[in-house]
Amino acid sequence: MTESKWSGQGLANGAMPQDRDLKWEIRRLCDEKNAVVMAHYYTDGAVQDVADFIGDSLALAQKAAQTDADIIVMCGVHFMGETAKILCPQKTVLVPDEEASCSLAESCQADEFAAFVKAHPRHTVVSYVNTTAAVKALTDVVVTSSNARQIVESFAKDTPLIFGPDKNLGGYINAITGRDMLLWHGSCHVHERFSAGKIAELKRQHPTAKVLVHPECPTEVVRLADKVGSTAALLKFSVADEAQEFIVATESGILHEMRKAAPCKTFFPAPPTDGGCACNECNHMKLITLQKVYDCLKNGRPAVEVDAEVAEKAIRPIHRMLEISAKLGL
Ligand code: 13P
Ligand code: SF4
């Protein structure tokens, strides 16, 4: 989690006056309404710059659980808002665009997942945080890419586990822990698109560059990695490591914070398989704009609501994740 240093003077280079006005208005509304703005590293740079906190999925959930603000503006995708709402049912949680979904969460429909779970009654259910509240309600413990390995390892090796919905993250955790978890066959459309061939070619052009890979990427991309980790772990590594150049195989929004945190280093977005674009963007994350952050704060909507019965079941595996993470110092 990065604590934003908003001073009212901190305009990003090249920001338009309109952006500056919106940022001032957003900060003013936050003060007036006791609201806090939290942003994921994949959101637009201008949104990250106006936020009180920037973080990965785990840090955003932890911060939401701790805040004393009355309103949480979750600049990210819908499951992040749902997680915050489940943890803080008394607070208003706003996600600036209600269309901001997640292809991974969509790849796991609750009724189909329920049938899968029912077919394997001896299995403990481990679900990635990138799921709907209804899927979390069918889950024993939630994980994020920051703590999946440690939480899986907290179960005895002979405990049969289901892991959903990301087959790539699940396959990676199986490989590094020597487990044989049953995997749901979901994936993220952004991370699936990275091309191992194009990354290898970029590495030939920049032989000293280290390759940073999110575990939602397919195995052939993970194999090229010098570091595999969550967005926060990749950011931390890029700042601390002695390398001066990095090829980054995750959503390109993270490059904003990497370049701010290590301005003398060079970061290359890993190329996708198809299309002429140089980087991969999550179309859902990019729905969150400064204008929509301002509008939702001003109007108090769209607010996230979670069915009370679903929330009552979903909070247990989320709490379990937060408790294990706290014990492990994650
Ligand atoms: P992190 O938990 O690593 O931030 O990842 C969230 C995500 O949606 C990855 O695509
Ligand atoms: Fe979901 Fe993929 Fe976007 Fe992450 S990058 S929010 S997993 S669609």
Topology summary:
Blueprint: E1 2-3, H1 17-33, E2 35-40, H2 45-50, E3 53-55, H3 57-66, E4 71-75, H4 78-87, E5 92-94, H5 103-106, H6 110-118, E6 124-128, H7 133-136, E7 141-143, H8 148-153, E8 161-164, H9 167-177, E9 182-183, H10 196-205, E10 210-213, H11 219-222, E11 227-228, H12 231-240, E12 245-249, H13 254-261, E13 266-269, H14 290-299, H15 308-327
Parallel strand pairs: 2-3, 2-4, 4-5, 6-7, 6-8, 8-9, 10-11, 10-12, 12-13
Antiparallel strand pairs: 1-3
Helix pairs in contact: 1-14, 3-4, 12-13
This protein binds 1,3-dihydroxyacetonephosphate and iron/sulfur cluster.
Provide key terms for this protein.
single chain, about 325 residues, alpha/beta, Rossmann fold, 3 domains, five-stranded mixed β-sheet, four-stranded parallel β-sheet, 13 strands, globular, binds 1,3-dihydroxyacetonephosphate, binds iron/sulfur cluster
3D structure, described in words:
- This protein has 330 residues and is of the alpha/beta class.
- The chain has three domains: 2-100 and 285-308, NadA-like (Rossmann fold, 3-Layer(aba) Sandwich); 104-188 and 310-328, Rossmann fold (3-Layer(aba) Sandwich), CATH 3.40.50; 194-271, NadA-like (Rossmann fold).
- The chain is 42% helix and 15% strand.
- It contains 15 helices and 13 strands.
- The chain has helices at 17-33, 45-50, 57-66, 78-87, 103-106, 110-118, 133-136, 148-153, 167-177, 196-205, 219-222, 231-240, 254-261, 290-299, 308-327; strands at 2-3, 35-40, 53-55, 71-75, 92-94, 124-128, 141-143, 161-164, 182-183, 210-213, 227-228, 245-249, 266-269.
- The strands form three sheets. Strands 1-3-2-4-5 form a five-stranded mixed β-sheet, sandwiched between helices. A four-stranded parallel β-sheet has the order 7-6-8-9. Strands 11-10-12-13 form a four-stranded parallel β-sheet, with helices on both faces.
- Helix 1 runs parallel beside helix 14 (290-299), helix 3 (57-66) runs parallel beside helix 4 and helix 12 runs parallel beside helix 13.
- The longest helix is centred in the C-terminal third of the chain and has 20 residues, at 308-327.
- The chain starts with a strand and ends with a helix.
- Mean pLDDT is 93; it is low at 5-13.
